[in-house]
Amino acid sequence: MIEDLPFRLSAFGERFASGSGILDLMDDLGNALAEGGDKLMLGGGNPSHIPRVQSRLRVHMQRLLETPGAFERLVGDYAPPNGTPAFREALAGLLRREFGWEVGPEQVAVTNGSQAAFFCLFNLFAGTGSDGVKRRVLFPMAPEYIGYADLGLEPGLFTARRPRIEELPGRLFKYHPDFDSLEVDDSIGALCVSRPTNPTGNVLSDREMERLAAVSRTAGVPLIVDNAYGAPFPDIIYREAHPLYEDNLILCLSLSKLGLPGARTGLVVAAEPVIRLLGAMNAVVNLASGNLGCMLGQSLIESGEILSLSREVIRPWYRERMERALALCHRQLEGIEYRVHRPEGAMFLWLWFPGLPIDSEQLYQRLKARDVLVVAGHHFFPGLEGEWRHRQECLRITYTQPEEVVAKGLAIIADEARKAYANH
Fold it and tell me: Which domains are assigned to the chain?
């Protein structure tokens, strides 16, 4: 890529020219959607087009267009850097009612998608400080979200810890934080976890979250929680789990998995000084956040539908598809050495092939050649140092596609895995 440019690049520019896992993922997703054809889309994180959800979003959009002055504000006005005050008050009110949190609109910020929020947050708390110390973001339990890996303005901004692996009946397993290895010294600027976790579908227990919050509080650093799939919306959680919020936590939500990924609306709930900083960054980088997500989101919150759609439509939709996909997985992969992370939330299955003779990138390329798009597991370990063969033995697939697509894709995955084992 660099060779094609007639200009010199900065070190920052060269990082983007060298490629990234999230670029591969979005490139595969975008090209496959544009080209159509027979590709089996088991890789991307695009939410399902749920008919009942889309129908209700259409109703709210129509109401918005029919409200005097609303269309003009939607397309013709800048919002304040932290988002429209009415939406921020609506979200704060929802959190107060649902969870009893003492949260006001001054503790809510709107960003142009969660990716933009994490770019701001990671670089606010990690990197070289005025004291000359370079601090990093610590992921207490890898694997973690692929999109985090390239968000640092400085190289080497992340560090991670291996999980404990609990073997479960029925060819399942589960990751847990290894608290014995979780030392947080002055080289750490923030902790970050996702709950539910992308890529594994893991849901940290309430006790694990309380322990992580205590670690961050003792160290005097924030705990950033990526809640894109969690409660109160879209609430794609299949086990009992209660959201946690306190002053040292920064909670990140999103409207994307509710069914609005095109609106690019990320939401941050944090202490007021953090929100002011995010507003300052947003003003410099974006001038303002988009209006569509705020105006639709406010309508959904005030009507109460954001909760009923999440609990009565979205969660059951994904749970049914998860159960079918897991059953297909066991059927198609029979006779292969495999494990599946216990799916507790989100919209993915995380496949582990212990002792896989080829690495996950080779398996990804072989599947891509057969029109099956997955995501190679090694991309999901940002900041993890040292050799660990496990990260080369995993794949992430999504079960948002129709059952026949998932079944056909899993059959090809099984075929390629069998060939890999047989040839070695």
Answer: 2-53+308-422 (3.90.1150.10), 78-303 (3.40.640.10)
